Amino acid sequence: MAESSSTIGGWDLVERHKGTPQGGVISPVLCNLFMHYAFDLWMGRTFAGVPWCRYADDGLVHCKTEQEAQTIKAALARRLEECGLQMHPEKTRIVYCQDANRKGQYPNKQFDFLGYTFRPRVVQNRERDRRFVSFSPAVSVQSLKAMRQTTRSWNLRNRSDLSLQDIAQMYNPVLRVIVIIQNSPT
Questions:
Q1: DSSP code at position 156
Q2: Is 148 helix (H, G, I), strand (E, B) or coil?
Q3: Model pLDDT, residue 15
Q4: Which of 46, 80, 158, 174 is the most exposed place for a label (fewest CB within 10 A)?
Q5: Which 3 state secondary structure label does DSSP give 118?
Q6: Separation of alpha carbons 76 and 47, rounded Å
Q7: What is the CA radius of gyration of the chain?
């Protein structure tokens, strides 16, 4: 059935016969409900011992070997195809989590997930006062760009009417996600 459109009161209305409109209030609920059955329960049945996480339609599967990663990736592609879905060909890849204990050389050693870039980084051991390589997150370049764009749009240099408390309240929602992720138990 073809979609038809009309205009009412300046709004473009599109009649739909399948799917939900992106940005609609019900879309995230239906996505999570569908993915719960299509992915979450399937992973629990098919790969019971493999840790994974998912946020809406983005997910990570933690594998011990490249062979295990290849196997799960192929099985997941088949499962999603059965459900009428497909993995994004450019965003889906196997990444090696290189750190001080994992020193192998692989082409992909970083990935972005929920606004963070996970990659090998030199970090400081506070107890021993030594540096080492850890596979850890930091705010992604895209997220930093969005944060800068948001704060620049406030034009704070011309807002002498704001108190320090007002400015802090404006910044909190932009920065809060960093604090939550960094302070969460591992």
A1: G
A2: helix
A3: 77
A4: 158
A5: strand
A6: 10
A7: 22
Question: What does DSSP say about strands 58-61 and 52-55: parallel, antiparallel, or unpaired?
Answer: antiparallel
Give CA–CA dist 138/133, Å, rounded: 14
Question: What are 76's two structure tokens?
Answer: 């997941």
Query: Could you give the CA distance from residue 104 to residue 99 in angstroms, rounded to a whole number?
Result: 9
Pairing of strands 116-125, 111-113: antiparallel
Kindly list the distances between the CA atom of residue 81 and the CA atoms of 71, 74, 77, 78, 86, in Å, as whole numbers in the listed order.
Answer: 16, 11, 6, 5, 6
Cβ atoms within 10 Å of 68's Cβ, excluding its own? 15
What is the spatial distance between Cα 57 and Cα 16, in angstroms, rounded to a whole number? 22
Amino acid making up residue 175: L
Task: Calculate helix-pair angle for 164-183, 141-153, nearest 10 degrees.
Answer: 170
Determine the length of the chain.
186
C-alpha 170/C-alpha 181 separation (Å) is 20
Higher-confidence residue of 31 and 71: namely: 71
Residue 37 near residue 31 (C-beta atoms within 8 A): no
Which residue type, as a one-letter code, is found at position 66?
Answer: E
Q: Which structure tokens are listed for 154?
A: 């406030």
Please give the structure tokens belonging to residue 65: 């070997």
